[in-house]
Automatic annotation (TrEMBL):
Organism this protein belongs to: Buddleja alternifolia
Protein name: Peptidase A1 domain-containing protein
Entry keyword Transmembrane helix: no
InterPro entries: Aspartic_peptidase_A1, Aspartic_peptidase_AS, CND41-like, PEPTIDASE_A1, Peptidase_aspartic_dom_sf, Plant_Aspart_Prot_A1, TAXi_C, TAXi_N
Biological processes per GO annotation: proteolysis
Length: 475
């Protein structure tokens, strides 16, 4: 009897808490409704930078890049908007699974193996086109310009190289290291080779690398150093993989520029030159043909950014972990969403990461259910619509040009990030169907995705051990 009374008391307490949370008026903002369009029909790359490479100057303190969404570069480019969006969600699901698998994996020890007999514990979420954004940069001397995927969820920089044992089709000619005066193979005993999770060594005592991805795709070849050219700025001696066997994905790009936090990522390798700072601003690929931007150096730190400390995972150094303490809907803290749901424990389980290549923010299931229910309560005046893919909270907004929706604020440690309405209620077709752009994950790892980051300049300050968010930072 006592147990039954206790259960009734808890149920009443939860109901009373929910009622009191919404006894005061909620905060709302206006969402201007747009359908789901196709991506831009042309890319705005400037060829001037490629024709002027001979006058390039070595970089001193900063550099910048344009970023484009991968859907502009996809074989499914001419598909319907709905098909492209479904493709994006499929890529997202594979990436989330791979990131969660890596976060849950046990740390590996470095073991040097013989030629062709080595492996790596590097597992990224790249799949079916890899990261969501890509850019164009020069490789070698003189620079050969190629498309490269950018990814904050992986570290190793690599590109396809001739001779190819097996290479996928890319838009530009495969890089030929024999035509570059700055290409240099790394010896097995070099410190850079030892930074690989599991370095290999060929008969010539040159370093070998291999990177495996969540869907079984991989790249392997020689680990080398080369010069990279960003616009007219050159960065020398960047350690990268020169891949001779590359199988499975990547949709036309030549390779990948790893922006993770690990010791072989580009930001860490070039950290001294740029003060350990970089930032990006992601323009919504479905509403603008303008490119996004990536900055390195002091200019990357936006003045209006609010910062939250970076947390350290003792078993994994790649991801950007932050502390998430709660979420507000309509100006009211959602009951049940506390810091304990997102805690990164002493052995590296759980936590929250900020990731450029995941689209939809994933939250641990208890947090997501509480957030979803709070949003449904605040949006009860909107006409509900059936579920769509991974989204279980959708609305039929056909015939409307704008609607009022409750505000959503992410409360990080020391930084409150108020999301624009378009960052959490998004079109999923061209017929007025909009869905709440969060999802649950059964793993302990939560991920802040790029839909929620759009329009913000997201600052990664490795020197200051912090991540910042600046609203309207794309200008």
């Amino acid at each position: 009897m006592a147990g039954k009374l206790k259960s009734i008391f808890i149920s009443v307490a939860i109901s009373l808490s929910f009622f009191l949370s919404y006894a005061t008026p909620l905060e709302y903002q206006t969402l201007l409704l747009t359908s789901l369009p196709k991506p831009a029909q042309t890319l705005s790359w400037s060829t001037q930078q490629e024709s002027e490479h001979e006058t390039g100057l070595e970089i001193e303190t900063s550099l910048s890049l344009d970023l484009h969404h991968v859907d502009n570069f996809s074989p499914a480019f001419n598909s319907s908007p709905q098909s492209l969006f479904n493709l994006r969600l499929r890529r997202d699901a594979i990436r989330v699974k791979a990131l969660s698998t890596r976060a849950a994996a046990r740390p590996r020890t470095n073991v040097t193996r013989r030629a062709r007999d080595f492996s790596s514990s590097i597992i990224s979420g790249l799949a079916q086109g890899s990261g969501e954004y890509f850019t164009r940069l020069g490789v070698g001397t003189p620079p050969r310009y190629v498309y490269m995927v950018l990814d904050t969820g992986s570290d190793v920089v690599w590109l396809q190289c001739s001779p190819c044992r097996k290479c996928y089709t890319q838009s530009d000619a495969v890089f030929n290291p024999t035509k570059s005066t700055s290409f240099s193979r790394l010896p097995c005993a070099s410190p850079l080779c030892r930074r690989l999770d599991s370095p290999g060594c060929n008969k010539g005592k040159n370093c070998l690398y291999q990177v495996s991805y969540g869907d079984g795709s991989f790249t392997d070849g020689e680990f080398s150093t080369e010069t990279l050219t960003f616009r007219r700025n050159r960065v020398k001696n960047v350690a990268l993989g020169c891949g001779h066997d590359n199988e499975g994905l990547f949709v036309g790009a030549a390779g990948l520029l790893g922006l993770g936090r690990g010791k072989l990522s580009f930001p860490v390798q070039a950290g001294r030159r740029f003060g350990g700072k970089f930032s990006y601003c992601l323009v919504d690929r479905s509403s603008s043909s303008k490119p996004s931007s990536l900055l390195f150096g002091e200019s990357a730190v936006a003045r209006k950014a609010v910062f939250t400390p970076l947390l350290t995972n003792p078993k994994l150094d790649t991801f950007y972990y932050v502390g998430l303490n709660g979420i507000s809907v309509g100006g009211v803290r959602v009951a049940g969403i506390t810091a304990s749901l997102f805690k990164l424990d002493a052995i590296g389980n759980g936590g929250v990461i900020v990731d450029s290549g995941t689209s939809v923010t994933r939250l641990t299931r208890p947090a997501y259910v509480a957030l979803r229910n709070a949003f449904r309560g605040g949006a009860s005046s909107l006409k509900r619509s059936p579920d769509f893919s991974l989204f279980d909270t959708c609305f039929d907004l056909s015939g409307k040009t704008e609607v009022r929706v409750p505000t959503v604020v992410l409360h990080f440690t020391g930084a409150d990030v108020s999301l624009p309405a378009s960052n959490y209620l998004i079109p999923v077709d061209s017929d007025g169907k909009f869905c709440f752009a969060f999802a649950a994950t059964m793993s302990g790892l939560s991920i802040i995705g790029n839909i929620q980051q759009q329009g913000y300049r997201v600052v990664f300050d490795l020197a200051g051990n912090r991540v910042g968010f600046a609203p309207k930072g794309c200008a």
